[in-house]
TrEMBL record:
PANTHER family: PROTEASE FAMILY M14 CARBOXYPEPTIDASE A,B, SLL0236 PROTEIN. The keyword Iron does not apply. Belongs to the peptidase M14 family. It comes from the Bacteria. One of its GO terms (biological process) is proteolysis. GO terms for molecular function: metallocarboxypeptidase activity; zinc ion binding. This is Peptidase M14. SUPFAM superfamilies: Zn-dependent exopeptidases (SSF53187). Pfam families: Peptidase_M14. One of its GO terms (cellular component) is extracellular space. InterPro entries: Peptidase_M14. Keywords: Hydrolase, Metalloprotease, Protease, Zinc. The keyword Isomerase does not apply.
Amino acid sequence: MKRRRKIALLGGAFILGTGILTPIVDSSVVSADPLDIRKPSISGFISHDELTRTLNQIEQTSNGNVVVDVAGYSNHGREIYKATIGSGDKVVLIQSEIHGNEKVGTKALLNIIKEIGKNNSPEMRQLREELTIVAMPMVNPDATELNRRGNEMTWEEVVEQFPQLEGVAPSWNYYTYINQYWDYKSNPGFDVNRDFNPDLDYVPQPKDFPNNSSAPGWFITPESQTIRDVYKDLQDQFGTVDVFVDLHHQGEYVIDGTDDPVTLSLSGVFVPHPSTSEGEKYREYADVYNVDLSKQLNVAAYDALQQMGNSPFGNISLYPQDLDLPGTALGSFALNGSGAVLFEITGQTQSYGQKKLGQLTKAVETGVYGILNSVATDEVYELDVEDYDDIPLTDR
Ligand SMILES: [Zn+2]
């Protein structure tokens, strides 16, 4: 803790001293086509300062229903928050913006925390009584401030933290490239969402670098460590984290066999089943892995969105299903027994900007409420697992 604090202060000084908060892409990236470097406004999204203010406000006006804590710090010393609501014995962990250019989820999550904390309707009271909801909006705040995917961290900083990695090749998810949007060359970082390991006590070993996307990550970033620690605390307290929801964005797609633009995609499958030959390497997790619950949770979200009627809210597709991504939070936590749901909202912020912001925010809220209500009422366990496979695929 003490060490983190020190890093936090140094980080803060560094940020101010070098003016790193100015949009780095506009000043240091040369592009052949000037149109390429025009950046859509992101002023409608939430900054880290605004997150801090909003969470404080929500806590203060929630009559004690919402408790906000600092769960940890980003590599540059920004607070990573968790907001806890409810006192039920079913646990739901929801996070947003592990990729800092995927911002709608944070807006939706703040609305959800506020509503469940404040509203005294029977439905909201039931959520508070039946569930313990832990919301972690904006878990990668350094990336948020740069409107980019990766965090802000050098391989040298990793080696400083884990001296056993001296002389080892950097992990495969270390970004050092430059393009029209980002300059990772002068300001490198990691894809935090490939830094998870289903062994939640894993300690980095030189033999596990640089690895690849179908191998587990290492918990080398403070952001993944913070999320992992929150997850483990919940396991200690409740046994299992029943549900894990991760809010992301994707490119722009249409629903398979149609011209309908996808509003968002869902998924509950991130690794091959541990009981199959492809999933052999995950055999030790076979007893707790619960893909049926993941599928039921996805169906709950899908059904809630379909109930919005014939509208963009109905244009929901299933994300590709043949994934093997144990280094994602979803992959690692699903192997630990959580029912897992991925939201992939249309459009990356750096190119899509804040188009349809209200509609997309509402769609995410609707899907998440579908999950929360179905878990609070136990209806999720009655849903037909096979309905999951009827969700139309994304056309790619
Ligand atoms: Zn993402």
